């Protein structure tokens, strides 16, 4: 959730990094009385995200700066579109320009890439979801951008839900069908009744013993298309079927067509490039 506290904290940290002792150029070259009226302009097409971060950046620098949104979060736009108007004291606008652009370009890049994945699977039941492969300190921003692009959020962090992977099972000594089922049942007994439990498998033969423990979901990791089809058949609606691994824009539609419910894609965040946006002042 992109809360006001997170927005304030991220922006404050970014401004402290960029201008720890003020903006030397602005303070020496720009009169305190100077005003500017600029537009955030798209240099390429995409999907917009990050408006609240732009507002907060200029609010922290000078509350007299007026930011007017000209595009909504999640709105698609063409190259040349004005996405926001920033008007007011020039010193604050010029000091905040790069921080506002960096945050908005990053978030809009994630939203734009997510929208491409979501469009590729729109003819299926599958949802596109993000992962924890995010930029440290910017997870809330990037997950917000995924939602703006039409994707879904996986767990926010390790505290949100239980995800049992192969190394967890190895650490528990769960090496055969009976021990896997037993270990997962004990986990279910210790977890709260509202806690989601997802178990990662990398072989078809792991699915039946995992299903016997009644998990919330089963993550089919790096399965081939035929294996995914068989995995969905074995799960048969008794748990959420999630596919992960080897997902890109060339493969995602075929993966979705196997009948999986969710496709988690690390590339949405760690593979997105910043969108080309600029701040233009007449």
From TrEMBL:
InterPro entries reported in the protein's UniProt record: Aldolase_TIM (IPR013785), NadC (IPR004393), NadC/ModD (IPR027277), Nicotinate_pribotase-like_C (IPR036068), Quinolinate_PRibosylTase_N_sf (IPR037128), Quinolinate_PRibosylTrfase_C (IPR002638), Quinolinate_PRibosylTrfase_N (IPR022412)
Molecular function in Gene Ontology: nicotinate-nucleotide diphosphorylase (carboxylating) activity
Record key words, sorted: Glycosyltransferase, Pyridine nucleotide biosynthesis, Transferase
Catalytic activity: nicotinate beta-D-ribonucleotide + CO2 + diphosphate = quinolinate + 5-phospho-alpha-D-ribose 1-diphosphate + 2 H(+)
Pathway stated in the Swiss-Prot or TrEMBL entry: Cofactor biosynthesis; NAD(+) biosynthesis; nicotinate D-ribonucleotide from quinolinate: step 1/1
Top EC class of this enzyme: transferase
Superkingdom in the source lineage: Bacteria
Quinolinate phosphoribosyl transferase C-terminal domain residues: 110-280
Family: Belongs to the NadC/ModD family.
Protein function: Involved in the catabolism of quinolinic acid (QA).
Entry's EC annotation: 2.4.2.19
Protein name: nicotinate-nucleotide diphosphorylase (carboxylating)
Quinolinate phosphoribosyl transferase N-terminal domain segment(s): 23-108
Family annotation (Pfam families): QRPTase_C, QRPTase_N
């Amino acid at each position: 959730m992109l809360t006001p506290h997170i927005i304030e904290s991220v922006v404050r940290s970014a401004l402290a990094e960029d201008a720890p002792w003020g903006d030397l150029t602005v303070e020496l070259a720009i009169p305190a009385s100077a005003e500017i009226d600029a537009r955030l302009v798209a240099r390429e097409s995409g999907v917009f995200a990050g408006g609240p971060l732009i507002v907060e950046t200029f609010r922290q620098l000078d509350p007299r700066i007026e930011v007017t949104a000209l595009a909504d979060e999640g709105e698609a736009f063409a190259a040349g579109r004005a996405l926001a108007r920033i008007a007011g004291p020039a010193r604050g606008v010029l000091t905040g320009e790069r921080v506002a652009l960096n945050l908005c370009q990053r978030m809009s890049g994630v939203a734009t890439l997510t929208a491409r994945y979501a469009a590729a699977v729109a003819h299926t039941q599958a949802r596109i979801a993000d992962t924890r492969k995010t930029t440290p300190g910017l997870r809330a921003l990037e997950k917000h951008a995924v939602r703006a692009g039409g994707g879904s959020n996986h767990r926010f962090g390790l505290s949100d839900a239980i995800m049992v992977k192969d190394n967890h099972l190895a650490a528990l000594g769960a090496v055969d069908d009976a021990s896997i089922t037993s270990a997962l049942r004990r986990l279910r007994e210790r977890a709260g009744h509202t806690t989601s439990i997802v178990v990662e498998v990398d072989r078809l033969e792991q699915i039946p013993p995992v299903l016997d423990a009644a998990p919330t979901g089963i993550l089919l990791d790096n399965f081939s298309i035929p294996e995914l089809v068989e995995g969905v058949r074995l799960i048969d609606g008794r748990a959420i079927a999630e596919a992960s691994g080897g997902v890109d824009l060339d493969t995602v539609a075929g993966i979705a067509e196997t009948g999986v419910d969710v496709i988690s894609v690390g590339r949405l965040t760690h593979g997105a490039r910043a969108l080309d946006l600029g701040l233009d002042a007449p």
